[in-house]
Amino acid sequence: MTPRMMWWKIFSTRLQGIFPRKRGTPISKTPVNVTLTGPELTTLTLVDLPGAHFANDDPRMNHMTQSLVLEYIEKNTNSIIVIVSEVGDPTGDSAINLVMQKAADFRSRTICALTKPDKLRDSDDMGKRVAMNESSFTLEDNRFILLRGKDGTDPNEKDWDAEMTRIKEKKWFGRHKQYKDIQHVCGIDRLMDTMISLLAEKMITEIPILVRQMKQRKTEVDEMLKELEDSEVPESSEGKGRSRYEAEE
């Protein structure tokens, strides 16, 4: 275990003892905010929700994870990234079904990461068909991203840093007969590009709305200031609270 992983394990263990949990579950609804700063980092907020359980033996766990996910999806209009734990028909995935049910605009704001493509036979083109929007669940083009990452097959994986993992992943997709010709939807780099693109699209949509709201608010403030300028400060308490027009009458 690397020092970073050891630090995170200690940190997360301490958090578990601090935050109140929902009765009968190991889950807390108290958010943990982690802020990273640096000259090469972009302004981005990620909300990591718990995996949605459906087949868990404990129904309380199922209910709690589903309610947390639904609460976020319903009250936010932000982008959604769904992780499908293994490449397959996404319509059978519990998280995908939640998104389809509760986010009417899910096609325009959802990115679906398809993991473990190496679990499929080389002749199986399911991952490719899903990634190319050819399954029963569709999103906007290039919103399905295939990720491989670490799979435990290389004994040296534990020593890989993020850059080495990225390089190994890129090589694997590049030589795979199903994925070598769809590199534009494969790998962590493509996921980051897609997230940035989706963020840019949202900014293009939201900024004009924000500008209009700011202009409207400025107009309201200007009118309030004008009223204050036109009002006369009373010399005695008797005239307080009356406008100049009322005082003259």
TrEMBL record:
InterPro entries per record: Dynamin (IPR022812), Dynamin_N (IPR045063), Dynamin_stalk (IPR000375), P-loop_NTPase (IPR027417)
GO MF assignments: GTPase activity; microtubule binding
Basic and acidic residues biased stretches: 237-249
Cross-referenced Gene3D superfamilies: P-loop containing nucleotide triphosphate hydrolases
Domain Dynamin N-terminal as annotated: residue spans: 23-116
GO cellular component: cytoplasm; membrane; microtubule
Domain of life: Eukaryota
Start and end residues of each Dynamin stalk domain: 163-232
One Pfam family of this chain: Dynamin_M
Signal peptide: none
Region spans: Disordered: 225-249
Protein's recorded name: Uncharacterized protein
Lineage: Eukaryota, Metazoa, Cnidaria, Anthozoa, Hexacorallia
